[in-house]
Amino acid sequence: EEICYLAPVFVEFENASQRCSWVQVYDVGVKAVLVESSIVWANRSEGTGTSGAPASANAWPALTFRSLVDRVGLGSLVPVEYFGNKNFEFLPDNKTVQKFEVCKFNKLFLPSGSYTIQGRKVRVYQPEYEECWASGLVSQHDPISHIMEITFDNGDENQMVDPLICDDELMKYFSPVGQSVLKDQSKVRRLKQSGESFLQDGSCINVAPHLHKCRECRLERYRKYRNTEEDSDEDDDPNVACRFFHFRRLAFTRKGVLRVEGFLSPQQSDSMAMGLWLPVPAVQEGLDLDTSKYILANVGDQFCQLVMSEKEAMMMVEPHQKVAWKRAVRGVREMCDVCETTLFNIHWVCRKCGFGVCLDCYRLRRNRPREEDEVFSWLKCAKGQPHEPQNLMPTQIIPGTALYNIGDMVHSVRGKWGIKANCPCASRHTKPLVRPSAPNGISQVLFSSSNSTSGTSSPCNLTQSSAKESRSSGEGNSSALHWLADLATQKAKDDTRESGSLRSMMSRDSRPPFGLDSLSALSKPSASSPKLFNSLLLGSSMAQSKPEGSSLRDLLNSGPGKLPQGPGESGVPFPSVFTSSDKLKSSLPNFLDHIIASVVETKKAEGRRAGSSEGGELSVLGGRKDGVMGLSVLEPHTSHSWLCDGRLLCLQDPGNSNNWKIFRECWKQGQPVLVSGIHKNLKANLWQPRAFSDEFGDQDVDLVNCRNCAIISDVKVREFWDGFQVISKRLQDSDGQPMVLKLKDWPPGEDFRDMMPSRFHDLMENLPLPEYTKRDGRLNLAARLPNFFVRPDLGPKMYNAYGLISTEDRKVGTTNLHLDVSDAVNVMVYVGVPEGDENQEEQVMTTIEEGDVDEMTKRRVYEGEEKPGALWHIYAAKDAEKIRELLRKVGEEQGQENPPDHDPIHDQSWYLDQVLRRRLYEEYGVQGWAIVQFLGDAVFIPAGAPHQVHNLYSCIKVAEDFVSPEHVRHCFRLTQEFRHLSTTHTNHEDKLQVKNIIYHAVKDAIGTLKAHESKLARP
């Protein structure tokens, strides 16, 4: 028989009544009982020789005193309660089991295990004393050590209590979160007599129709009023999310009238609510030890920023204000009513209508004079009254101090496992980091310090020897290779220039969001930033590299693929320093190209090391980036090649299980990646245009004219597919010319899986890099978001469009320049070459020639063995601001306005043609990746990377979004950027919930690492 939750089970063992300990098991479904150092199964059996009972009587349960499992096998997952040798009675009559009672209460000693008792009422006993010493509320509780801070009822100061020293008793009948009992008349009578408060457990309309109604219930009442056919007495609409549900407390007056008693406080959170937000020290599904380390190494700093921002937000709470606790509601995404960003934790709520604003919107309104124009307008309260910041109630979503507890765990766990950290908070205890000696003999020591008040890193101090001593030999500098490197370095200086301008909107309206001031510093690899994964986990000793090659002999001995790289800020290991027309031709030996590239990197590093600290940041903060050419050594068994002159990794075997190893090294540098050959595994018949037309041809859709962005509404989707490969069947414009069309949002929203299940399965089974792209991939952080929350819509989404043919079409895009808040993989599943245009192939070749693509890509096209589908231009996320500056400048030259709530990239109103791409390179030193996507190619686009697409032929593409640990910092930053967009932007609403994803990814990683802590003690 199963042991029920919280049901006491007492066992007496045969002939061992004086040697056994009495225990109580709390875990649901556990059939084991811990006695002294042994575990036995609690199954019903015949009892023989039980004291005080006939020998033949059935004892329930009666067990033999035999050790079946060692105590270590139980671990810390099953909470148990030790009773010791107490006086007891055992009744073996098969009817009942005598409960062990002390005084008038069922004494429940503090259990061990992973859950928390924060918010519970406890009594504290001094050792060897039977009388209660004090009672109070657990305001903080460490779920691992169980040390708790207790707020005593007698008003004494809060004290920390260790349950291993003091006896603690949970008050069984204390219920921190009450439930509405309005439907139970007997309980209603009791509540009216006692005046006790209870939680509102239904909508305002049904529970308290005469009290202030929240915004959602007011809208629902208005909808019912307008719809006369609806019954006003019907049950709650499940689609209506009442904002006061399980949040507002109600009570009866002496006259039996309901009134508002207040709201829940963070101390009233129960163990069930805390369980959603605290780590469980067990291996989490889909996470192993190494993955957990990697997640903490990449996401830990951003989580620290979250904690800092929440602490700073709490400083805005006035001393007289009380913080309320709004428990998370399953399936409801709490959003700011002003900027539509997902509410993570601290926010401000109106007590009357539930209107809520995030901490950034609250700070903006509180700090800015009323007469200034506002980007975000605030909704009115009941009866048209304005919402004033001082009248709103500070509210948190995460119960108790769980957020801060995990923040402490992050630092503790990273310290135990030797995981490097670069967070600027006061909890980070850093030591001077001695960088490896440079080839010129410079020794650099980097001191890092943090400012606990502002939460930002103070400038680092750099000590280095004089420039004269940096020249150990003049021979190397006078070599032809160094002369070439000097020439190349002069043309590449713009690559390291930092943009000093921020978006005018953000700089005028606000400082960086709380705790995010130093996020820009975090987005750059520091001197202590992780290099390769091994050095990331194994400490600084692994990161120490040999001095970079300072002579031609070193370079020649190293060979291609093994060249050591100097420190550099660029996300591109070997940045191209010439335009497409100036690049060295393929006739030069690749080996010499590698040597020159290595010397260029070394020369650039020397220039940065000799630079000053003007501008507030030292160039030495740009840690060394490992060159992609050396990745062949890391994973020699992965079939791959290099495009874009060695800057773009192309994986050629999508099913290779080791692809992630080499992929990750390029991905964490912010580079796109190409994977080819996926179409070989797809079911081709599912992705034919005719199949879509036959199955869904009668659906009404909207089409977009790619040439002028005009929308054509209410068209049968069959008309689009009929012209997909036959130009004569295409819809025509007012001049009688066939239009270049693309399907708008089809299938709509999240309907792809439901509408096309076979295609969904075919795609998801064949996506490359499943560790990242699968919905449950171990490196897809979106998989860590519990089902309790509204899962973000990460696709898949289809992109169906005709090819752009004419010369004028080269100035427009199928998809204009934009960027996404999440990572994405875009798969070309079908390429259709239309009938009816003899010159189309020649036009495609010209477009590719003018598209700045590299020689290797051109060779793929000219050989003709593969079908080219689309031309992509992708830019590094760090170059987004420079691209904005160019587009604003060009817009001003064309007489365009730049409204504050619009953005030249987010507006998706620009396509960078050859002229603009050349200006971008010449004026800002920005060069992207020009990629031709063939049939079966998957393009991986990093989060925050501006990109545009130009279809060469008719294409069917399918994209799936994911959240990788390497690019969380960009998701973090972009969420703040999107707040400032107008509501017309598709990216305005924060659907990704990046803060929740970060939180639960870190939580799960900590739980897994704590489950493996026993390995730390092993030799």
From TrEMBL:
Biased composition (Low complexity): 448-458, 518-527
Residue stretches of biased makeup (Basic and acidic residues): 491-511
EC number in record: 1.14.11.65
Pfam families reported in the protein's UniProt record: JmjC, PWWP_KDM3B, Tudor_KDM3B
Keywords of the record: Chromatin regulator, Dioxygenase, Iron, Metal-binding, Nucleus, Oxidoreductase, Transcription, Transcription regulation, Zinc, Zinc-finger
Designated name of the protein: Lysine-specific demethylase
GO BP annotation list: demethylation; regulation of transcription by RNA polymerase II
Molecular function via GO: chromatin DNA binding; histone H3K9me/H3K9me2 demethylase activity; transcription coregulator activity; zinc ion binding
Domain note: Leu-Xaa-Xaa-Leu-Leu (LXXLL) motifs are known to mediate the association with nuclear receptors. The JmjC domain and the C6-type zinc-finger are required for the demethylation activity.
Region of interest (Disordered), ranges: 444-527, 543-575
Function: Histone demethylase that specifically demethylates 'Lys-9' of histone H3, thereby playing a central role in histone code.
Source organism of this protein record: Mastacembelus armatus (zig-zag eel)
Cofactor: Fe(2+)
Details of cofactor binding: Binds 1 Fe(2+) ion per subunit.
UniProt-listed PROSITE patterns: JMJC
Comp. bias intervals (Polar residues): 459-480
Compartment(s) of residence: Nucleus
